[in-house]
What does this fold into?
Amino acid sequence: MLPDNRLAAVVFGQHHEHLAQIEQLLDVHFVTRGNEVQAEGDDAPVALTIVDGLYTRAERGEDIGPQEVKAAVRLADQPRPPNGKPLETGAIEIRTDKRAIRPRSRNQASYLMAMAANELVFGLGPAGTGKTYLAVAQAVSLLKRGEVERLILSRPAVEAGERLGFLPGDLKEKVDPYLRPLYDALQEMLHEGKLNTKIGSGEIEIAPLAFMRGRTLSRAFVILDEAQNTTPAQMKMFLTRLGEGSRMVVTGDPSQTDLPAGVPSGLLAATTRLEAIEGIALQRFDRSDIVRHPLVSRILEALDDDAALETRTGA
It folds into this structure.
């Protein structure tokens, strides 16, 4: 039984749409009577745990929609950690000016914990798994709390050579299209006026990778996105910018490199050599962590299957 009838209605959803969504995702059938809910089927214990977790969210006044329900199912349905305790969706939280951000998969939760505990973290995986978004959220949170003084976000501006001279416009016009995803993430976490003020003051800097050369970045949170498009020399240059009191997060998808044929990826070289070093963490994501539109996961699955078939047949 859910104690509050009003909150129970929020958990169940309009026309019980949230319960129907859980039924579609798990082997379970719900039976409700007023604010009482029972579950039947092999996944009944998991389903009731999900309902309890959603009720806790409702008690905190948080919104519950299809994405929140899907995240709750994903977390509850994954293997539990060694302590045997389920991961509750509200157990890990990053607060920014515009929203509270929580992990939607166990790998995302591990990633957030790794960023809190390590000075250098690598996040590897396909598009849509939250690698960059969660790193920006963590950076904004630390900046807000005064634990770092600057936030620096960087990307290779184009393919690894960063051939900006061939693009039209001044330097800002040349690089802005490549850095737009970083702006988009920041705009979801900071109000427009505050974001513009912080960018204008240099408290937040968004720059192509080439601008990192020769700098020492102290008391900063530094993010390198799309790192699969760096060469080993560029990656070495970036990682050695780490200064006193700084943290770094490097994100990328090793399967999506745009480097010319025969040029090794700096991301692969770095993770191969650095993973075992104390103070460095590596979090891998897979298709089950994708939190974009459900079609993204299916598209990746289909394209990866086609690529594997071509490899086997020599096509």
Observations:
- Residues 80-90 have pLDDT under 50 and may be disordered.
- The two ends are 58 Å apart (CA to CA).
